[in-house]
């Protein structure tokens, strides 16, 4: 036992034994409503069976609330209890006084147990029979609400509550102690059930029954709420308005009798109608519903469905509401789904931390079965070429390496039939094109060959290293973006480039505060080396050139940035994925749930592609969302071209064969071969991460403006 606990016990024992016995015996007297029962020894033995110092306080419960990055409440997650803890100053004196008047009129006079009230109740119970009147003080009710949770009508319960109430009074003595008891009671008292959720605390009651706050309650409203805890179901104003009205007027009458209000104030309040205003929507109204669902899923993954459903969590997230609104405005300004335009999604990650700063779609919650930003898996088109280019650079292939660049290319027979074509006939008749130029022009025929040369299994490994988690088949068609991924994944890939090759884990939650005050961080900042820094630097330089003068040039908003467009057959999906030093943003446009060819009322005709549909959205959004910062990329290093860091490949002009996935299996490369798995071709024995994976919990400081 602690020193403080021993001192409290000593204070309770000094000269108070006779009083305790008298009080507890009187409690027994009232509980049974008869002249005598048992003996003093029985009463004392029951009282000695409990000690407040040895009991844990029960969590009264509360809904889990989720906050945006700036502290704005996004909404409450569903839970069994509706409750908001508030301070004394946030409660109207009217509701405090009404509670004392109806529940414990001698509250400020007794010391936790009302001896006078006990004998008054005993006299009435004996004369009328049964339990016509109780004698529980607010301290005793608080003990029941927060410590024992015992609601039985037993003699033992009354004895224990009386003993514990006196101990509670010792813990919180004087007028300040009474304020603490009343405030705590008003924060935990039961006020009924609505929609299957239990209402606890005066703030939740004010919200649900009158669509207001405890600070703003009128006399009539305060009296209605104060009358509920005695019998919440019987006096529920929704279920029994007549009973609630009668109970309210009785509370007002008692307040007048005890001098809390004047006779005229009481009469005026009693004349008012019940005036219930359904405020239940306060706890069901939610902003950013898709993101809230995403957060709830993350919480369940970490703490389990049972714990999350219990509520009582304060969840702080990374969502930037300003960027959310700017993203929606950009989509609305460029697309009109009501006129037949496609839908869109925007995701922004902070490259340094992985924080999800924006994650939204152009469709309203409920119109789609899934969140377009985090669950909408679509083909990324040419945005995936960046992964193929990265794989080549990792294998030591220089971006100045030339490839044949025909306008069309027959698919090798081992992969099926058909022809690979460039989107708008780009290519070089009978000539070649270096990889940088092929990236800026987004030439399909070059990247199909490049995917086969570096090995599609290696491309898949690079995709994983850069942040793709969706299923990949390592088919040659994936080099042109045939796999299905989400905008969140694409934003993560491009964040890896912006971040110097460090892959970040997207995170939505910065911290969770539990009901007991403990703080958990379920999603710490995680940075892992995905690709070598020199490779990321070189890809960054190429993609910056794409924004300045390649297929993504129409997305240039004047600040240093890199990016890549993407368009699938039809086209049914168009993308713009890009980044600045502090923002990595993916924009997708298409028709949810179908592969319908995209049309746009904003386009006068011609090709519908990433540059004409997604780029304007990306540009408008990034131009406004980047804020005052317009700094350049820091820490870029020269590309060394070191060979064999991830897997191996044949020379572009080699003659080796490949397996069903496009992975080289043998043959002889020319002098330009970079194969390390085999000297006679590019085997797969060298496919691995040959560089260490560095993980960090804390990101580096951002570059100075």
Structural summary, described in words:
37% of the residues lie in helices and 13% in strands. It contains 22 helices and 22 strands. It has a 5-stranded mixed sheet. Strands 8-7-19-18-17 form a 5-stranded antiparallel sheet, with helices on both faces. A hairpin with a 5-residue loop joins β17 and β18. α2 runs antiparallel to α7 (155-171) and α16 (385-394) crosses α18 (444-454). The longest helix is centred in the N-terminal third of the chain and has 17 residues, at 155-171. It is elongated. The two termini are 57 Å apart. 51% of the residues are buried.
Strand content: 5-15%
Largest sheet: 5 strands, mixed
Please give the order of strands in the largest beta sheet.
2-1-6-14-15
Average of per-residue pLDDT values: 84
CA radius of gyration: 35 Å
Query: How many DSSP-defined strands?
Result: 22
Can you tell me the residue ranges where pLDDT is under 50 for at least 5 consecutive residues? 1-15, 33-37, 647-705
Give the CA-CA distance, first to last residue. Answer: 57 Å
Shape: elongated
Helix vs. strand class: alpha+beta
Helix amount: 25-40%
- Counting DSSP H or I runs of 4 or more residues, the number of helices is 22
Keywords:
alpha+beta, five-stranded mixed β-sheet, five-stranded antiparallel β-sheet, 22 helices, 22 strands, elongated, disordered N terminus, disordered C terminus
């Amino acid at each position: 036992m602690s020193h403080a606990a021993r001192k409290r016990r000593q204070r309770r024992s000094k000269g108070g034994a006779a009083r305790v016995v008298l009080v507890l015996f009187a409690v027994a007297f009232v509980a049974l409503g008869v002249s005598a029962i048992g003996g003093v020894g029985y009463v004392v033995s029951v009282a000695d069976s409990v000690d407040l110092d040895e009991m844990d306080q029960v969590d009264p419960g509360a809904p889990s609330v989720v906050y945006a990055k700036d502290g704005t409440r996004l909404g409450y997650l569903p839970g069994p209890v509706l409750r908001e803890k508030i301070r004394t100053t946030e409660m109207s004196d009217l509701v405090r006084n009404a509670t004392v008047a109806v529940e414990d009129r001698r509250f400020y006079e007794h010391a936790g147990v009302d001896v006078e009230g006990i004998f008054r109740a005993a006299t009435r119970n004996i004369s009328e029979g049964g339990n016509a009147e109780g004698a529980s003080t607010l301290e005793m009710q608080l003990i029941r609400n927060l410590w024992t949770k015992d609601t039985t009508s037993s003699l033992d319960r009354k004895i224990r509550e009386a003993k514990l109430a006196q101990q509670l009074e010792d813990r919180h003595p004087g007028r300040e102690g009474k304020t603490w008891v009343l405030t705590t009671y008003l924060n935990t008292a039961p006020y009924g059930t609505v929609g299957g959720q239990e209402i606890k605390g005066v703030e939740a009651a004010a919200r649900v029954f009158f669509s207001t706050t405890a600070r703003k309650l009128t006399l009539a409203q305060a009296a209605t709420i104060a009358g509920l805890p005695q019998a919440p179901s019987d006096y529920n104003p929704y279920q029994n308005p007549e009973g609630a009205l009668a109970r309210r007027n009785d509370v007002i009458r008692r307040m007048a009798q005890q001098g809390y209000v004047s006779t005229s104030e009481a009469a005026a309040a009693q004349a008012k109608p019940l005036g219930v205003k359904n405020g239940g929507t306060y706890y069901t109204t939610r902003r950013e519903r898709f993101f809230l669902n995403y957060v709830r899923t993350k919480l369940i993954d970490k703490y389990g469905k049972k714990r999350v459903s219990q509520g009582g969590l304060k969840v702080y997230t990374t969502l930037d509401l300003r960027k959310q609104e700017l993203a929606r405005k950009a989509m609305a300004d460029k697309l009109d789904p009501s006129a037949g335009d496609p839908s869109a999604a925007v995701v922004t990650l902070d490259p340094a931390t992985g924080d999800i700063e924006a994650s939204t779609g152009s469709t309203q919650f409920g119109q789609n079965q899934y969140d377009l930003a985090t669950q909408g898996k679509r083909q990324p088109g040419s945005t995936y070429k960046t992964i193929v280019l990265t794989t080549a650079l990792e294998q030591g292939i220089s971006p100045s390496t030339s490839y044949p660049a025909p306008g069309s290319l027959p698919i090798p027979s081992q992969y099926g039939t058909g022809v690979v074509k460039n989107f708008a006939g780009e290519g070089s008749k009978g000539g070649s094109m270096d990889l940088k130029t092929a990236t800026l022009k987004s030439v399909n025929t070059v990247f199909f060959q490049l995917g086969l040369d570096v090995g599609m299994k290696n491309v898949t490994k690079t995709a994983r290293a850069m942040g793709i988690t969706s299923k990949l088949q390592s088919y040659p068609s994936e080099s042109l973006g045939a796999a299905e991924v989400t905008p969140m994944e694409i934003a993560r890939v491009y964040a890896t480039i912006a971040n110097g090759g460090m892959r970040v884990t997207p995170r939505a939650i910065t911290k969770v505060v539990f009901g007991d005050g403990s703080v958990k961080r379920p999603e710490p900042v995680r940075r892992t080396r995905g690709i070598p820094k020199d490779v990321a630097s070189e890809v960054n330089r190429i993609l910056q050139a794409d924004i300045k003068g390649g297929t993504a040039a129409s997305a240039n908003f004047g600040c240093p940035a890199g990016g890549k467009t993407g368009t699938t057959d039809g086209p049914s999906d168009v993308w713009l994925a890009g980044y600045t030093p502090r923002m990595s943003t993916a924009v997708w446009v298409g028709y949810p749930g179908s592969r319908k060819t995209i049309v746009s009322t904003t386009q006068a005709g011609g090709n519908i592609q990433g540059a004409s549909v997604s780029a304007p959205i990306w540009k408008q959004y990034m131009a406004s969302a980047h804020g005052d910062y317009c700094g350049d990329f820091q820490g870029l290093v020269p590309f060394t071209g070191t060979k064999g860091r991830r897997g191996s490949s044949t020379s572009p002009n080699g003659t080796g064969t490949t397996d069903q996935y496009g992975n080289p299996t043998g043959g002889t490369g020319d002098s330009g071969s970079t194969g390390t798995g085999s000297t006679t071709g590019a085997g797969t024995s060298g496919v691995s991460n040959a560089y260490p994976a560095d993980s960090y919990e804390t990101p580096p400081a951002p570059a100075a403006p």
